[in-house]
Write a structure and sequence with these properties.
single chain, alpha/beta, Spore Coat Polysaccharide Biosynthesis Protein SpsA, Chain A, 26% helix
Length: 194
């Protein structure tokens, strides 16, 4: 693990945390600051990116609270919570590194070696996307430099579906367990960890 963290400092990856949801199923709370196992969900997400040269947090609110973590914070600049792809595209526009690894803020069980595993599967022209027995987890991914333009073009055409934006790109799959891709979308989802 320590070797992976040391290696990650040399990887040209921006870590992107998607924390811009409305939190409707969480009673309107900003999920990034909902506690899970004694720490806010944002802390669990940021831990995955330890050692990377850059992290960008995409958020729609609580911007000052997110900025307190010392990373770049970008907003969707739209009050209607337009979806995670808009936030991802905005984060990529700010990213200084050519590659980007993305995670949603509400997935605290992702494996500690996630970035290493994604990097080992990287494709020069495409994306690496997580999947489990539940299906595709399109917001847990590694995006190659050319694929960033594909996301922007997809959004410009009106696309908003996270599962569809990379359909025409070369794709490698990272297998994760159902437990690893657990999402904390409701208060009940927090029960085993809070």
């Amino acid at each position: 693990m320590d070797e992976d963290r040391r290696a990650s400092r040399d990887w040209p990856i921006t870590g992107v945390v998607l924390a811009g949801g409305a939190g409707r199923r969480m009673g309107g709370r900003d999920k990034g600051f909902v506690p899970w196992r004694g720490e806010p969900l944002i802390v669990h997400a940021l831990r995955l990116f330890a050692g990377l040269p850059e992290v960008v947090i995409s958020a729609n609110r609580s911007l000052a609270r997110y900025q307190a973590f010392g990373h770049t914070v970008v907003g969707d600049e739209r009050p209607d919570f337009p979806g995670p792809l808009i936030g991802l595209d905005r984060a990529l526009a700010q990213a200084q590194q050519p590659w980007a690894a993305c995670v949603p803020v509400d997935s605290p069980c992702l494996p500690a070696d996630l970035i290493t595993r994604l990097w080992r599967l990287r494709l020069a022209e495409g994306v690496v996307v997580a999947r489990s027995a539940r299906g595709v987890e399109p917001l847990v991914c590694l995006i190659a430099p050319p694929a960033r333009a594909a996301l922007s073009a997809y959004i410009a055409r009106g696309g908003r579906t996270a599962r569809a934006w990379f359909a025409d790109l070369p794709t490698a799959w990272l297998s994760l367990t159902e437990r690893e891709v657990t999402n904390c979308n409701t208060p009940e989802d927090l029960a085993d960890g809070s």
